[in-house]
Amino acid sequence: MNLADVWFILIAVLWTGYFFLEGFDFGVGMLLPILGRTEVRRRVLINSIGPVWDGNEVWLLTAGGATFAAFPLWYATLFSGFYLPLLLILVALIVRVVAFDYRGKESKLDGKTWRSRWDMCLIFGSYAPSLLWGVAFANILRGVKLNAEHDYVGSVFDLLNPYALLGGVVFVVVFMFHGAVYTALKTDGDIRVDATSLAVKVGLVAAVVAVPFLLWTQSLRGNSMSAVLFVVAALGVVAAIILIREHRDGWAFICTGAAIAAVVAGMFWGLYPDVMPALDPANSLNVTNASSSHYTLTVMTWVAAIFTPVVVGYQAWTYWVFRKRIGVQHIPMSPEHESAHTH
């Protein structure tokens, strides 16, 4: 194994961490109109991810930066060919960030109207990236139209194929399930009861849509190890449904997280040694022809070895500090909020 292989594995780990962590706060955002029927309940949901959502996005920035430095040709081909969906993801994430900050600020608009508009932005900023990440990764696995110079020569409509669209739906539903389980884990009272009930229903839908996608993926680029990982993912979803019905929220969350990790690991395992497969295999990018120089990868490895434990340790400490459940009783209520809560 050379350093290019090592960095392929590290990038796979970064994407796994991103989807595991960002997946549940995307899920909470998508469930805002369902579980957040009053302003106080919406504030509980937002506060449940408030201390951690921005730290979760660090994994995306690191994955993108690592791809740019370790595999510049992969990065260039990906961002030129997938320009429009990646731009939409960026816009959605920006809108989501602004929504977190601005929904609580004063405005000339009526307070309820102001907050509802930012809530819609938050919901959009949760659904759109989930769907588009699924479409993007499914297309990478399927293969795209590349010429001999590894330039993307297809159109955006080529990316909207049935397999990729199914991948987008799977990402949305699985993240929603992950978010419902997280909400049951992090809240108490009526919100926890509602989240538990909803998690069972969404989990069943996730199982139904995920199985054909995993079978399709296995037929496209699968091997024995990816098959094992996909079976683990399916068992993780089933176990999470059973555990959440038994109100074992922590174990259910571990199972949904394990399912997501197994799916992403299986996708990367099936992808290797390619990083950007082409419909014509002769034009594919792989870990050898897409990687940076040995010196660049060596410097990156030392930097990662020094700073990665610091980042992971700090994020783990953040989760530990904010580990307790929250409920409506923890939300300071103004008269307006009290009126909304009683209705």
Task: Describe this protein's structure.
The protein is an all-alpha fold and 343 residues long. Helix content is 76%, strand content 1%. The longest helix has 32 residues, at 111-142.
Give descriptors for this structure:
343 residues; globular; two-stranded antiparallel sheet; 76% helix; mainly alpha
Short description:
With 343 residues, this protein is an all-alpha fold. Helix content is 76%, strand content 1%. It is built from 13 helices and two strands; from the N terminus they run H-H-H-H-H-H-H-H-H-H-H-E-E-H-H.
Tell me the span between the first and last alpha carbons: 62 Å
Radius of gyration: 21 Å
Shape: globular
Could you report the average pLDDT, rounded to the nearest whole number? 91
SSE ordering = HHHHHHHHHHHEEHH
Question: Strand share of the residues?
Answer: under 5%
Number of helices: 13
Q: Which regions are unreliable across 5 or more consecutive residues at pLDDT < 50?
A: 337-343
**Widest sheet: strand ordering:** 1-2
Structural class: mainly alpha
Main sheet attributes: strand count, strand direction, barrel closure: 2 strands, antiparallel
**What is the percent of helical residues?**
over 70%
